[in-house]
Each structure stands twice: as structure tokens, then as C-alpha cells.
Specification:
Number of helices: 0
Structural class: mainly beta
Strand content: over 45%
Shape: globular
Helix content: under 10%
Distance between the termini: 40 Å
Largest sheet: 7 strands, mixed
Radius of gyration: 13 Å
Number of strands: 11
Oligomer: single chain
Amino acid sequence: QVQLVESGGGLVQTGGSLVLSCAASGTISGHSIQWYRQPPGKQRQWIAAITTDDMSYYDDSVKGRCIISRDVADNMVYLQINNLEPEDTAVYYCKVNLGDTSYWGQGTQVTVSS
């Protein structure tokens, strides 16, 4: 079992940047980690993933503006988002799958003002 805690969200102006953090209570070194976001009134959507060998994948909506990274020693995963747009306003979640079980954090709110 693992607990995830996201942080780093906030209010930012269009064109700004944020680095979101995902802290894991247990080791995540052997697992891929994913970031999702849920805009107001919309479904949660996948936006990025990092594998155990540090391969990264991005949804087209953030490709070129996002960097996902991990610090295995500290059980941390980061998501840097650059050139933020109002459409990026959402609650951002990290997720890890352990076997058949998915573990989510509580989310961190990102609000981008125009």
C-alpha cells in the first residue's frame, strides 16, 4: 500500500509555470507513475506518465509544455508545466498502480488566470 500527496498548485497567470510534486509514503521505484487532471465540470484525464526506466509520455494537450520527472531516492515525482493557459485550470492528481489496485492522491488545485 502507498499514500500519495500532491502539492505545488496555486493561482498563476497565463504564461506562468508551476512545479507540482507527488510525495509517496512508500517506495515507488518499481512502478510507473501517472499524472491526471480534472478540469471543472469535466472528467479526469490522463496527461503524463513516467516509467521505471524514466521514459516519459504526454498527452497532446500538454506535450511540449510539461516535464515529468522522478526522484527515486526520495519517493517523489514532479510535473513541471510551462506556459500555462486558462485551459490548464484543474485539480491535478498523481496515481500509481500496485497490482490491480490504483492509488490516488487527494489532488492539488491549479488555477490559471487570463
